[in-house]
Amino acid sequence: MALLDTPRPSTRLRDRAIRVVEAATTPLLPADYLDLFAPLRSGADLRGRIVSVHPETADAATIVIRPGADWAGHVPGQYLRIGIDVDGVREWRAYSLTHGPRADGNISITVKGVPGGKVSNHLVHDSRPGTLIHLEQATGDFVLPERLTARTKLLFVTAGSGVTPVVGMLRNLFPVTDEGVLMFGSRRRATDEQPLDITVVHVAPSRPESIFIDNLHELHEAGAINLVDRYDDVHGFLDVARLEELVPDLAERTTYACGPAGLLDALATHHEERGLELFTEQFRPVVISSGEGGTVTLEKSGVSLELDGATTILDAAENAGVLMPSGCRMGICMGCVLPMREGAVRDLRNGEITTATPGETNTGGVPIQTCISAAAGPCHIDH
Predict the structure, then answer these.
(1) Is 294-381 a domain of CATH 3.40.50.300?
(2) Structure pTM?
(3) H/E/C letters for each residue in 80-128?
(4) Which CATH class is domain 153-281?
(5) What is the domain partition of the chain in residue ranges?
(6) For 53-80, what is each residue's pLDDT tens digit?
(7) 24 to each of 18, 75, 187, how far by Cα in Å?
(8) How many whole angstroms separate alpha carbon 226 and alpha carbon 165?
(9) Which tens digits make up the pLDDT trace of 257-283?
(10) Contacts of 16 (CB under 8 A, 6+ apart)
């Protein structure tokens, strides 16, 4: 047995070579140097390099990214999390992919600058080609069925930047080039005889603020979709109760909707009352119920915060200068989860209370999502 456990000469030489290289590069590792020269290589942390930035409106831009070799692809309608350094701090946010599979292998996201948004405004106004960013694999179930038939009738309802995942679906169904719409892409027709039947109701504050409106009109003029565009400054706010007036055959369609919480809530009520099928994607959580507030103690950081019942723990901690894990900031990706060792928080989306009681709950703490949780009394968080 001792002979079997003795390393072979080739193994010893390899290990010795690795130790020599590591000693020569200390305090860095050889992989650190590879990251400098080949950051997008297979086996490295998944990254991407910004290829180009294209303004869409005054406060929105499409970011084209060359992903690393281990990018696994996506289904149109999905989103991914990106990590980018802003003012020396790595921030993570989630954005929808705005295309189907591309021949050049690149991916793209379209970002709308949010008032006061640190990352969104940086990406729209300050990001530059050549910048390396961190990526996570695409995820999300706001996607079309694998197979569409000629009998499939779809309705997309989009508002503001909610158009981004839908544009990704449409560009996959009806490929677009710089010259315009390609009418007979690989999925242009559900059968050889009949095209797909798609209506898009798109809502925006005004036409100049409408992301991708030119693409939508190209598809409409080519006969690929029936576009009903509505602008608040011309038509007033969309009244969901009158949706049948805009889409007379609404009852025959499956609806996919993405936009502000108020619109999605109204659509959910409307469709439920009529027994209609609805799939939704929401970018930001709506605050339904506030907590009572209280003192939040971040134990490892040595910070105590006095919070009201409407401010998320994530926002309050960041405003106090504490570096916090985060991601989508809407309660989906779980990138902000931290263990609460004691206390109570309220989920601002639905009012549910989560408690941690020493001696009764897990000794490691109860995981909470700080991006959608507010203090519901004193609480201690392991961070």
Answers:
(1) no
(2) 0.71
(3) EEEEEEECCEEEEEEEEECCCCCCCCCEEEEEECCCCCHHHHHHHHCCC
(4) alpha beta
(5) 47-135, 153-281, 294-381
(6) 999 999 999 999 999 999 999 999 999 9
(7) 10, 44, 55
(8) 18
(9) 998 888 898 999 999 999 999 999 876
(10) none
